[in-house]
Amino acid sequence: MRLSSFHIDGFGALNDFGLDEMAPGLVVLLGPNEAGKSTLFDFLAGVLFGFPTRRDNPRFHAPVRGGRHGGRVNFLDEAGGTWTVERYAGTQRSLRVRLPDGSEGDERSLTRALAGASSSLFRAVFAVGLDDLGQMDNLESDEVRELLFAASIFGQRHSATKAMKHLLDARDDLARPRRDDAVANRLGRELEGVRSDLLAARHESAGYEQLQHQAERIDGEVRAIRSGLLELRNRERELQLLERCWHPYRKGNAARGELATLPEAGLASALLERGPEVRSLAAGHSGHLERVEKLAELHLSAERLNESIEGALSSLGTGWTRERARSIVAPQLLADTARATFARLGELRTDLASADAVLAQVEALLATSEAAQHAGDIVPGGQVPTCSELEQRAEALDELKQRLAEVEHWELARLAEERDAKTDVPVTTTPERSTRLAAIALAAAGVVVAGLGAALLGHGLLAIASVTLLLGIVLVVCGGLLLVALSRRSASSRAGKSAETGDTGEAAGASRQAAAGRAALLDRGRARVDALAGTLGLDTPASRVDVERCAAALQRQRDERRKLDDRAAARSEAEDRVAGARDARELALGALGAECQAHGAWCARHGLAAGGEHETLEAVAALIDIHGKLDALDRVSKATAEIEPSVRAFARRCQELLDSIGAEGVANAASERAADDADALGAQVTRQLRRLDDAVAVEARRAELQRDAAVAAAELEDALGAGDDGNRLRRELATGSLLKWATEREELQPSIEDLQRAEEAAVRQHQSTAEAMAQIAGSDRIAELEQREAELTVELDGVLHEYLVLGTARSLLQRTLARHERERQPAVIAKAAAHFQRVSGGRYVGLWADAGFDGKQAIRVVSTKGEPIDAASLSRGTIEQLYLCLRLGLADCFAERSVSLPVVLDDVLVNFDPERARAVATELAASARTHQIVFMTCHPHLAELALRASSEGPTRSQLIELGRVA
């Protein structure tokens, strides 16, 4: 079989990737590192034989770029039929097999198509990576070993290695050192146990009376041990109780001693009674100091505000007092009104200045317009016609140009008819005549356009004149060429027309009538041209040059008329603007005067000096400042009235407290000077607070000591109790020592532990003796053990006999297999040796494959001298070449026995020197004739080497380049 195509839905870093056609021989996949070659290597094996089930398996390759985990592989079987295998991994693994006939298959169908090859066989033989070449382990599976040792001994479907392993396993199941589950080992252990139990039972049956005396003796020992142990434990509990009571006893004595040294409680009773008030005054003393300082600051602020207010009133002028300033309810509104008035005056003055500037500007513009109009009243050449007259002349000129073009057209037509008459060619109304007339008209139009261009050139319009002249020349040339062509055509057909004389008379008559009509039109046209020329003042008959001169003169008159009209309009507009500017100036001047009068009246109404704008604003600002300072003075007075009673009350409370506790106070504390004595008063209160803290600490310590003494007495009462034992322990507690009690208790502990161990040993001995007595009294165990001993002996003899038979059979089979390997190498080794001889250039001529006692293979190579060399002593590159040749031999034998499977190689030439690499590439190309070989590499020179080697063979090779996975 061979792979034909594949598609990866999602596998590792590969996603939506595949090949549509793969060559039957050598397929080279060239790509850099991280191109997905190893991933593709595992994908092909996974689809054909199944993906790993565990995610930690390095061959699992969960998709990292999306897609379903798996894909599709197509291959051709030996008959050329196409198989499609689609397999996916994950929680819902699925396999879909489509047979060559289009029907659905299953896992068994795929296994038959692959000749029963398993995943392990495919990965060991047909899917070879660089890591696989350096080791022999993956060639030691049962399937590979069966191929190595062929089936020449046991047939196609039997394995010598399996047979030897089966015999070895069966023998090990019977007997094996250090194997507890072997049958002989188990029987031997059981027999030894039965014999030991039988010997013990026979000894026990003779010692019942001795056991009875021993039990009585042990019972007395147990009672004595328990009595001594109880006495020691009671003394240990007393010592523990004394140690536990020692701390309360010492604590109670210390508390009673310290109570005797404390001062009596009546010395500071008055201070303790007033304690909360002392603490309250001490805590409020800092606030009292702040209030005293605040009161001094308020007095100073009041003095400064009074001085500032008097200075501001004097700046307003005579007659201003605090009452009059307070009568101004909202001085801020006066300031807003003053600022608004001054802003309005500023705007009005700005408007007046703007009106003066505008008036000066428009008057200058009017003077300029009058001078320009006066200079343009006299026009060279006489009076300029009006606009209506110029329009009439323009219409007459346009009609003259049209009539003149028509007359020229008719004259050209008449000349053509006269020429035709002279050559005896009748004038007809055929299309040829129409074309001739069109050519004449085209030439005439060209002349007219050329004349117009000459006129424009005279007026200096160079660009337009050039285009017009060029257009006229083109029209004249086109008309002339058309007339020449018509003349030649008439000459060529004149001979043919001379024979037709029958209709000549009738055509001549019609021609004469048409000529008469055209002559009449020509006369009328000339008359109209002369009339229009006279209207325009031109000589008759008028020519085209006269017409163009007239048109140029008419254009100049139009330009002069336009200039005169523009000057007149500019002067009229300037006069209107001067009048408007004068009116605006008068209005601005009147508004400014009215606003100044209103401002003077407002200042007089509010008692302000009607001076300049800044003086008024300063007066209003001074008035606002006076109002603010008066309000500040009121706030200062109010704060002073609030703080002074608090200062006096606090000083009074402090003095009363000091008097009540008999301490020295501050003289006259309730007078006006109480605020000045705040520091001294605070020092007195602080001193009394320290006395209070000392007294409170003494009372707290007294209560704590009394509580400790009571607690200690209660603990001793609870621990020792009443009675003789309690009194004895109290006396021992008063005269004893904690160190002595601890030493005695530690000395008791070894004795207690010894007695405990002795008690436990005596109890166990007593129980064992009793059990032995009971067992001897009613046991038939000796007979049962003797019968079991006989049964085990017979069973063990049978097992050992079978063990010897299995060992002999395995030894015979191993000798036969070794002789077969020596005398006739299997086909796999022969084919691998042929491959290896060609790869090594004849350096090694043969291979031996041995299977040892444990079934492990050993490969030896034979040099040209016939010396066997162990493969392990070869170089790394040679070992890799040997193992590659073994796989090629295995693939050849598998193909001969079943089907040819594709061989997938991943960078197997990396460690070979150039000569050996070429030899291996040549061998791979030769193998590609019978096997499809997929060669993956990241080295371009190795890909080129493989392709060059395969190009010489009959099979087709293929190069597929892979890009790095982004």
For the sheet with most strands, the description reads: 6 strands, antiparallel
| Radius of gyration using CA atoms only | 70 Å
Q: Describe the strand arrangement of the main beta sheet, using strand numbers.
A: 2-1-4-5-6-7
Q: Supply the helix-strand structural class.
A: alpha/beta
Describe this entry's structure for a reader.
The protein is an alpha/beta fold. It is 69% helix and 8% strand. It contains 26 helices and 14 strands. The chain has helices at 37-49, 107-113, 119-126, 130-133, 142-148, 160-174, 183-204, 208-261, 269-273, 275-316, 322-327, 331-375, 387-422, 431-458, 462-498, 504-536, 544-605, 613-660, 678-720, 724-735, 738-777, 781-823, 827-839, 876-897, 914-927, 940-950, and strands at residues 2-11, 14-19, 26-30, 70-76, 82-88, 94-98, 104-105, 127-129, 844-851, 857-863, 868-870, 903-906, 933-937, 958-961. The strands form 3 sheets. A 6-stranded antiparallel beta sheet has the order 2-1-4-5-6-7. Strands 8-12-13-3-14 form a 5-stranded parallel beta sheet, sandwiched between helices. A 3-stranded antiparallel beta sheet has the order 9-10-11. Helix 25 (914-927) links the parallel strand 12 and strand 13. The longest helix has 62 residues, at 544-605. It is flat, with a radius of gyration of 70 Å. It starts with a strand and ends in a 5-residue tail after the last strand. Mean pLDDT is 76; it is low at 149-158, 377-382, 424-430, 495-503 and 665-675.
